[in-house]
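ok trying this again, last paste got cut off
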Amino acid sequence: MNIKTLCVRGSNDSNNSTGSVSVPIYQTATFVHPAVEQSTGYDYSRVQNPTREQLENIVAKLENGLDALAFSSGMAAITMMMELFSVGDHIIATDDLYGGTLRLFNNISAKNGIAVNFINTSDIKQVINSIKAETKAIFIETPTNPMMQVTDIAAIAAIAKERKLLLIVDNTFLTPYFQKPIDLGADIVIHSGTKYLAGHNDTLAGFLVARTSEVSERLRFIYKTTGACLAPFDSWLVLRGLKTLAIRMEKQQANALELAEWLKRQPKVKAVHYVGLPSHPSYRLSQKQATGYGAMISFAVDGEMTARKVLERVKLVLYAESLGGVETLITYPMMQTHADVPVEVRQAKGIDETLLRLSVGIEDVEDIIADLQQALE
C-alpha cells in the first residue's frame, strides 16, 4: 500500500462493528473480564487501549517497524527509552540536539549514572573513535534541531551493527513520509508526535518504533511499568492528523523550498540552513537517504536587534514554540528550545542571538513571504 493511502486508511479498526469511518474513542480506564482467567484482549488502558492500539499499528506500518508505542509526549518517549540502560552505560549522541533532549541527558540521565558523549555524528571517524567498551547505543537526530545537520543513517547503522550497539534515530523533522530510518538500519525510531504526525498544534504525543521483537518486548515491559501512555482522546487526535500527513508534508515542503530561496536573497539574512538547498553541505546525502527535505528552516540575521524586531513584528507567522503544525511558527532557539544549554556550548554551534527557526506551515507562501518581508524591513 502506498504511504499516501496508508496515512488515510491505515487505521483499520478491527474492533469496530458499527461501520464508523472514524476510529472510536474508547474512553475507559478498565475493561470487564468475560470470566475468570479470560480477557477480551484489553484489561487496563495503561497496558493497552483499542484507540491507542490502532494508532500504534499505523505508526509502526508507516515506519516499517515491528511495533510502536504511543506516549503522552515526545520527551516521555525518550525518557522511558533511557530505561533500557543501566548505571555505567555510555551513549554516543549527536551534539546538535533538541534542547529538551539535551536537558534530559545532562541532568536526569547523568543522575542515573548513564554517560552521554555529544559529538558531530555526521563525522563517521568521530563516531568510531568515541566508542568505548561500555558504549551501548548511538543516538542521532537528523536533520538536527536547530542547525539542520544531517547524519548518514546507513553508515552509522553499519558501525552499530558491527559493535552490537543500538541505533536510535529521532525522525521528528522528516517523519516516515520522507525518511524511514528502520529501512536504513535503525533499531528504534523516535517521534515527537506533537509535531508533524498530529500536525495541528492541538495535542501532545510521542512514539517509539521498534525494529525487532527483542527490543519491542523490552520496551513494552518498561512501558506498562512506568505508565506514560497516550490517552484515548489524544490517540484519536493523532489518528485524525495522520490522515492528512502526506498532503501536509508536500505542501509544507513546497513552501519551505520557496521560502528558503527567498531568505537567501534578503540583505539582512546572513545564513540559511535548509537541507533542501543545493548549497547545504549534506544536500546529496539527504537525497540519498530521504525522499524529501521537510519544512524546517533556521536562518541567521545581521544582528540581535534584527532578530528581535522580526519576532515582534510578525503577524501571520506566529512567534511560538513547537513545530510541525499547519501554522507557520517562528522561534528564538537561544531563549526557547535551547535556553537551558550553556551559552558557550550553544554559541559554538551557531545558536546565538541572531539565529531564528521557522516551522513552515501550509498557508499561501506569498502571504508568509510578505509577512517576513515587512518584519525584516
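PB: full thing came through this time. The chain has a mean pLDDT of 96.
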